[in-house]
Amino acid sequence: MPKLSSITDHTHHEHTLMKRTDLAPFKCDGCQQFGYNIGYSCSEKCDFQLHPPCTEKFGTYIRLRQFKCNFIHLREPPEKPTICAICDDAINAYVYSCVDEGCTNRLHPSCAALPHVLKVREDGVLLDLKKTINKRCYICRERELGGHRTWSYVVRSKPSIQFHITCMREMMVRYWDRDHLLGAPALDDGGKSPARTLDKAKSQRFSVVSIFGAMLGIGESEADLNMRIFLDSLAS
Hints:
Elements: E1 6-7, E2 17-27, E3 34-42, E4 49-50, E5 61-64, E6 69-74, E7 95-98, E8 106-107, H1 109-112, E9 117-119, E10 126-130, E11 152-155, E12 162-164, H2 165-182, H3 194-216, H4 220-235
Antiparallel strand pairs: 1-2, 2-3, 3-4, 5-6, 6-7, 7-8, 9-10, 10-11, 11-12
Helix pairs in contact: 2-3, 3-4
């Protein structure tokens, strides 16, 4: 993943892109997938953001041990429709495409960059990236997404607690939205009163933090404090 504070590559965007660590949830203009907190944003204030993995030069090759495949970074998939082999969502733009003969594996750049192990807290709660899910997702309560058992993160100390990659990303949006609503009591929520807006935020807070607390086996207040660490580790 790029460590640079700025990137100038006109194959991506006409202006220099600056690294940001304070981005609200955004739709990446490269892969069209969700982004959060860390990304590269146009220095000239265009509404243009990229995930760090999407800033790699087109034509860059990578090899992923979990696939034993060689991938090349392309502006768009060789054919459509194309499904990501990790999250099972459609790929409509930037893609890592396998170049090995007879292989049709395609990946979102952000999925290709997912860490094999997520360290949630300093005391060592770990989540392992797995090629499938063999329990119901702790968030959506289903095993399959779109008729497939997608890749997942599994809590190492509690293997029965597993998460779809897509569900974890949605959880990040919900947590950010909860913070945004709680920090803006005067927010106009489609004509709803501030009190109802805050009720919505508190409900989102309860559902997300409850999931996180159950995952770690900790209380709600401690779960809330550690949630940001977890989400930042997933976004980075």
